[in-house]
Amino acid sequence: MSPESTSALSVSSGSHGDAVVVRAVGDLDYDYAPVFRRQLADLWGTSPAPCLVIDLSGLTFCDSTGLAELLWVLQRSREAKTRLVLAGANRTLRHMLAVTGLLTFFELADSVEDALEGR
Q1: What is this structure's pTM?
Q2: Which one, out of 16, 49, 86, 90, has a CA that is 20 to 30 A from the CA of 119?
């Protein structure tokens, strides 16, 4: 496996009823945060969905820049009155959110399916 394939970020999205699911796979860090932001900005450029699920189950790394991107998504979702759910956040990311005092600001679900059922 090449170094690029282990340190890149792939972001994709799809509709599930009235929800949009954005899947992030790889590293959400300083180098790849612009990829994440561009995908989300494009989504908000169209009409925002009532529910946005960010699937983080494929995330392998998240630094403070990645955390800042999640805060940006939270702010944008609040402005758009869109329900935001972080699905599949690993233990490290949950700990990072807890330590920074941000855990209570995010709705978390164990999986995308759980997030979609909770609508």
Answers
A1: 0.90
A2: 90
